[in-house]
Amino acid sequence: xDKLKQYFDDHRGEIAQAEVPxxxxxxxxxxxxxxxxxxxxxxxxxxxxxxxxxxxWLSGTLGSxxxxxxxxxxxxxxxxxxxxxxxxxxxxxxxxxxKISAKSHGKEIDNNVRSLSEEAVPMLDQLPDELSDSEKATxxxxxxxxxxxxxxxxxxxx
Length: 158
Hints:
By secondary structure, this protein is mainly α. The chain has eight helices and no strands. It is elongated.
C-alpha cells in the first residue's frame, strides 16, 4: 500500500494531466446519480418517520390534557408554603375522587381511592418543627404528588 501511495505522489502531475478514458465519465455520473437518488430517498423516509413520530407524540401529549402532568407538577403552583400545598392536594384529590366515584366501581377501587385521598393524621402535622418551610414543602410535594399520581392512574383505568 505504501508503494502505491508513493507511486501516486511521485506521478501526481502526470495523473492530473491524463485524459479520462471515453465512457468512464458517463459511467461515474450514472453511479453518482444513483447514489444521490438512494440518499434522497433515505433522507425523505427519515424525515417522514420523524414527522410521524412527532405527530403521534403530540397527539398523545395534547390529547390527554392533565393526565400527562404529574402530581408534583399540579402542586407546584402552591410554591413553598406547606399549608398551601396541603390545601391544593385536598382540592385536587377531592375533585378526582368525585370523578372516580361518579362511575360504578367495586369495593377494591373505592378502598384504593380512600387510602390515597384520606389521611387519619395529615402529613403536615407529622413533619418535625425543626424543618424549614422549604424543606417541608419539598417533602409534601413529593408525598402528595405520588398520591395524586395514584389517583390519576385510577381515574385513567376507570
